[in-house]
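re: ur question from earlier - yeah i can do the single chain one, its not a big deal. heres the input i used so u can compare w yours
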Amino acid sequence: MARSMDTGVMVLLTVTVGLFGVTSALLGFIAEGKRITPGDIHVSGNDCVYLASPAHALGIWAILLLIVAQIIASVAGGCCGCCRPGGGASKSTRRVVGVVVTILSWVMTGIAVWYYKQGVEWNTAGTRGATSAGVYKGCSYLKGGVFVRAAVLSLVTTSLAIKSCFLLRAPPATAEPVEGDAEPKPNGQYGPSVGLPQWQAQGNGHAP
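and the output i got, formated as tokens:
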């Protein structure tokens, strides 16, 4: 009963983290196609006017979903995985690997959030000073690929987060019974242990 309940919790956590992470990546790919291009920028005097872009809101939602997915995975693995009894050395090794994977997933999350943040800032409606190149004036804009990098990192981060959940919440391996252990006989007696010498009781030679 406990094992089936724990399996259900693992499935729920995996689906939740995966859904949030994949949605974050999907929003990143959509934001890449909606980002501000040179055609969306107008020059007014010495200023560049940037029009509103859906990539701004998409990037913010992508950041929030990715961070929530990481928090769910870390809390589930840290609070529920470390309190499991038993497991011995195999559990200690698995826990160390799980912690390393968790740290790596957070590092990747930080990089993805940084890319998302760059995309959000450059797709905010407003004005910026124009750059002069001789008699011509130009406007800076975000080149392609920033949201794509963030989206790919979101997928990598999500897979690492799910892996850390499995490593930290996996039940300890059960020890297999040793061959030759004493087993009860139908009459309630136990058979002799394998490998031990047996002696027959010495009688006095007379029938009772």
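Residues 79-88, 173-178 have pLDDT under 50 and may be disordered. not sure if urs matches, ping me
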